[in-house]
Amino acid sequence: MNFIDTHCHLDAAEFGDTQAGLVRAAAAAGVSRIVIPAVARANFDDVRALCERFPSCAPAYGIHPMYVDDATPDDLSVLRDYLAQPATVAVGEIGLDFFVDHYDRARQEYFFVEQLKLAQQYDLPVLLHIRRAADVILKHLRQHKVRHGIAHAFSGSRQQAEEFIKLGFKLGFGGAMTYDRATRLRELASTLPLSSIVLETDAPDIPPAFIGKARNSPEHLPRIAETLAELRGMTIAEVAAATTANARAILKGLA
Question: Which helix (H) or strand (E) holds 95?
Answer without folding.
Answer: strand 90-97
